[in-house]
Specification:
1 helix, alpha+beta, eight-stranded antiparallel barrel, globular, Lipocalin
């Protein structure tokens, strides 16, 4: 269960970072991918504040909001809604998101 929670946390962080970049003029909108512990994940951020997270073929929709250097991601999974906040930074084609426990996730923007 801890591994699943870690994957979701990384996903939320990624989504938040993308949204923050979009608000700052750098484009968070688009597709970002990464992997950790042999688990691949892809975040898709849309201009309208909605997106999706793909975890090994399972797509999970979410909503996001960006304010300053923080992104808030709201995701519902198995009937439970979770809202998480993350700090983000975009540098060239890399998105780095950090959660409340200082766990860092790095994503690469896809073309």
């Amino acid at each position: 269960m801890n591994k699943l929670k870690k994957i979701f946390a990384m996903s939320f962080c990624t989504v938040m970072l993308f949204a923050l970049v979009a608000c700052k003029g750098n484009s968070l909108v688009g597709t970002w991918s990464g992997s950790e512990d042999d688990i691949s994940y892809t975040f898709v951020f849309e201009k309208d504040g909605k997106g999706s997270l793909d975890l090994s073929g399972v797509s999970i929709p979410f909503e996001y909001e960006v304010k300053d250097d923080e992104i808030t991601i709201k995701m519902t999974l198995l009937g439970q809604t979770e809202e998480d906040k993350y700090q983000y930074k975009i540098s060239k084609n890399k998105l780095t998101i950090t959660d409340e426990t200082n766990e860092v996730i790095e994503l690469t923007k896809q073309k």
